[in-house]
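Is WT7 placement plausible here? Inputs below.
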Amino acid sequence: MSEATQSGSIDHVLHERRLFHPKPEFTQKAVISTVEQYQELYAAARDTPDAFWRDQANEHLHWFEPFDEVCRWEPPHANWFVGGKTNACYNAVDSHVQAGRGDKLAIIWEGEPGDTRTLTYRELQTEVAKCAEGLVELGIQQGDVVSIYMPMTPELAIAMLACARIGAVHSVIFAGFSAESIADRNNDASAKMVITSDGLNRRGNVLPLKATVDEALAKSPTVQTCLVLRRTGGDDTPMTAGRDVWWHDVIDKQPGDLAAKPLDSETPLFILYTSGSTGKPKGILHTTAGYNLWAKRTFQWVFDHREDDVYWCTADCGWITGHSYIVYGPLSAGATCVMYEGAPNHPAEDRFWELVEKYKVTILYTAPTAVRAFIKWGDHHVDKHDLSSLRLLGSVGEGINPEAWMWYHEKIGGGRCPIVDTWWQTETGGIMMSPLPGITPTKPGSCTKPLPGVVPMIVDELGNDVDTEHGGKLCIAQPWPGMLRGIWGDEQRFVEQYWTDVPGNYLTGDNARCDRDGYYWIMGRIDDVINVSGHRLSTIEVESALVSHPDVCEAAVVGRPDDLKGQAIAAFVTTTGRECNDELLKELKLHVRKQIGALAQPDDIRFTAALPKTRSGKIMRRLLRDVAAGRELAGDTSTLEDLASLAKLQEES
Ligand code: WT7
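Reply from A.M.:
I modeled the complex. Tokens:
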């Protein structure tokens, strides 16, 4: 147990000592294959950022006109590659056709019902140009905002790229959101168009997307046009004359030869709404050149991309992970990407492994919440399939508990695949900290080290640097090309939320600790810290201890008010099937006590069938805090995936 010495620094109590070295076979062929190579890149980006990023941008993006200034930094505003003209769609698509690689597969797509489609880079270029021509015909111009609310079809990526091609700003809205959420987003961004589909396939059912959009459009006065892809068929799709048009009527007839428009580096590329911890969703703004470069280079470094890889990121394009690591990163790098439309458990719980086997996926990038679901569903689903094509595994979205890490490593990776635990945020545009798979020995639960260009800083309550092994607020001390440029229409919130606490530095909102080896450990959101008898504990460590018990599947830990201790520890637990009785309860308390110490032993443990999660799979601790304290639920629940699980928890309390 470490002592809390600094001003409100956070105690770190969980000790993870396992270390996994990359296999020499992997290292030999790796893009970054020596520690010295990384150190040189890192030092160059930190010490001479202008020279470093000038070379990176010139080498890795196409420029219609060269830039004359690398970074104009007037905190908190950064302009990157000032004076240059480029186009993210050109970099992601046309550049490969230009380079003679037009016949390479860009997208291998599989629909939930099992239908498939492939697109070479040349085919993608034509489809994107046709879509762009259609958008122009429908009155979309540079600077207009286009909302995209679609299933994971190739047309979703095509629509994003078509916007980028003409300088329109896309705002992708995850297709699980309600009409209310769509309308909020349309109105906040003054969207001029919505692109959607008739329906969406989900676990064998058809969800009527267009009907939901219609409800939203009744409250979205700025939207003039709705472009509708036919995906699920049926002739009952409501179409409003003068507003709604079919994709196949408008796009299919286009010639497909519209060239990508040269755009200023700082041209807005997209807005992506993310839920703040409370209140109204915020539109994170990313612009063209810096974001594009960051997505491409981080993809190449972290995923060790090689020409013959088959890469699959299981995220949805409705999240930043889909933007950066399904569309802009991998396509700019010329990768072959698998894209899957549906649920991981349809028609059965082995769908992912069937896809890995079928397409000989070499790199798999998924989320801890999925990994924990696979563990719960059972190993036999995995054992049915040959996963020997895999060479690298990635994780994103939240910390991956050491237990889930080990299962992913052994069961999916066959013990031979490095795991890259990638820490980043919607705001950072791309991965900030991650192992480099050829060189970084990994520790389960740590996102290891910063990428070149990322200068992390951990501070206490007063803004002073904390020592090694102490937890504190994680900030980023230098601008980087992929950083957010603002919150759409809300400069004040942008300044207050990210740039005020530790002036001049970007406040991530996460707590972290750096260990003696220079490895970073994310300790959860700043708001999630609990204070027990004056000790500040990170919820994630208590959760990891709980999950390391063989009968626990998932755990969420929050603080609740306690007269004596300040806060008591309340845990919500789902089990892998064992009966939830007092005996198990005692066992779990004892288990945490053994793993961490008496201080971290939960006061209450509640068994539940499911934990309330956001639609992107993050546990909603904010709501659980209310449940634990017996309070009325406060704040926004619009991004909640499963309201039922929460209602049930409340009833029981
Ligand atoms: C927050 C960002 C990153 C893209 C998808 C989510 C948490 C993310 C990790 C990780 C520990 C992680 C952080 C972060 N998070 N990745 N590898 N280890 N925590 O993007 O919705 O903007 O969420 O997710 O708390 O701040 P997002």
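Short version: The domain at 528-652 is CATH 3.30.300.30 (GMP Synthetase; Chain A, domain 3).
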